[in-house]
Amino acid sequence: MKPVHAIAAMCENNGIGRNGGLPWKLKKEMDYFTRMTSSTKDSSNRNAVIMGRKTWESIPNKYKPLANRLNVVVSKQMSDDKEMICFKSVTDAVKTLQSSHSNYSNIETIWVIGGYNVYKEALDNQLCDKLFLTRIKKEFECDVFFPEFSEHDYQLVQQEDVSQEVQIENSIEYYFQVHEKKTKLMVP
To answer: What average pLDDT does the segment 122-133 reach?
Structure first.
């Protein structure tokens, strides 16, 4: 099975967004996001990023589609175009991307990148093997928040390619965490 990971940056109140964008400007943190969601072990593969319609719409046009990744949008209204493919649910997207009989056999890792409803479905259906969370040590005014997840389901782990050092950028401190699912469950 292809691994499914969620990745998010959140401030102290678990806020992840405001007015359709990020409430902070952290270039090195965005570089981390790009590196994690783009890197593959096999150079003939690529990763998929699953996002909701609002997250897709929040990406500046000059960055659409997210380079070197299959862009997947969860939407009941949108349909595929040359920049991305659409599914009605996160679960449907994951099932199709993990299928060995699909057109997506070169997908190495599936990344869930937001927003709230996409994260919530992935967590509620226990689709994520790992959660890559950037914890920003400051509170920002937000209108979108990362959903609650149970510490009983995930454990904090160290990962070789993820720095354990506190990062400082624009006078804002943040650090990276990786939470791994305690028991591997199959996609329903």
So the answer is: 96
